[in-house]
Amino acid sequence: MPDDIRPNQEPTATEPHIGPSHQLPPPKRSTGVRVIVWLVILALFALLFWWVMHHRAAPAATGGGRRAAMGGTVNLNIATAKTGNIGVYLDAIGTVTPVYTTTIVSQVTGVISQVLYREGQLVHTGQQLIQIDPRPFQANVTTAQGNLDRDTNLLAQAEMDLKRYQDAWARNAIPKQTLDDQEKVVLQDRGTVKSDQGTLAFDQVQLGFTNIVSPINGRVGLRLVDPGNLATASSTTALAVVTQLQPITVVFTIPEDSVGPLEQQLRHGKALNVDAYDRSETTKLAVGKLEATDNQIDTTTGTLKLRAMFANKDFALFPNLFVNARLLLKTLDNVVLIPSSAIQHNGDAVYVYLIQNGVAHIHNIKPGVSEANQTQVIQGLNDGDVIADSSFEKLQDGSKITVSKQTLLPSNDESDAP
Predict the structure, then answer these.
(1) If you placed Cys at 168, which of 174, 310, 345, 365 could pair as Cys (CB 3.0 to 4.6 Å)?
(2) pTM to 2 decimals?
(3) Residue 157 pLDDT more than 90?
């Protein structure tokens, strides 16, 4: 009899027999608990979504960010479209390049006796900079001059003898050979005199090379030699460097697509202005004229090199200084101008807020060239139209507005000024 069956009791057909090798399966989790868990998760997601949307919309629904749709009036600045003139510019990065930069080297070998310039000094053409000891070269000049004097007198003596021989030959007192010989002696002496003259001139030039002068007007650089140094004729070591500052040029490049419009202006014989600005494009350094263009486009960069000339009276342009060059290609007269800050963009659409009867309306325009915070309006506005110039984050189409300040565009004279 099994141990788990009590005496006087038999197992029924409805009760399973439970033995040591049979275990009851674990009870299944209730379906209601799963539903509650999923409801809690969905509630958390809904709460998070509400929090994010609430805080994203909060700036637009509070304080100064309240939209016109909420019934508020937008306080803003306005500007008036005005007919005026505007320049079409080609902008480029340029380098200040001197017209002349002279590196002075010695033409003779000798000891430097004096350095007569100050570092950074402005010098003029012919001003003495360096003196090389002239005594050896002066001695050569003296020798050459003595040789010339001797041979000149020998030539004079030969010419006197020739005159006597000619008179004697006329009286048949001497043979013809003696006269011919004397004529050749005179020619030889004349050649010797010319040779002496050349030697003297050469020695005088060499003597002049000991006095080194500036070949141009300009500024001399830092001192490169000192008294007592040996200057060598065959050396490429510079004794001084002089750079011309007035006038001076700026070399810059324009893209090849702009070459056609530029050539069209040059064919008309126009003198094109070029403005030079500093690196930050805030300060105008100088105003000059386009001097020349290169004769070919650089195929590696697709650009054409130009040179502009500047008087540089105040020395604002320094050699090798990087500047922003602005070439005035042409001037558009009697066009509608508005502040560039009033123009808004939405994808490909360009628009302004046109003010009519105290209400702002979105108005599409077609802008043109821009210059000095002004933009040409090719299509969409007329002279005298009033537009919004601030508070764009608050504006909508149909917003009511109040005027805080009016922006005034420069006059025609100011906009045309270089």
Answers:
(1) 174
(2) 0.66
(3) yes
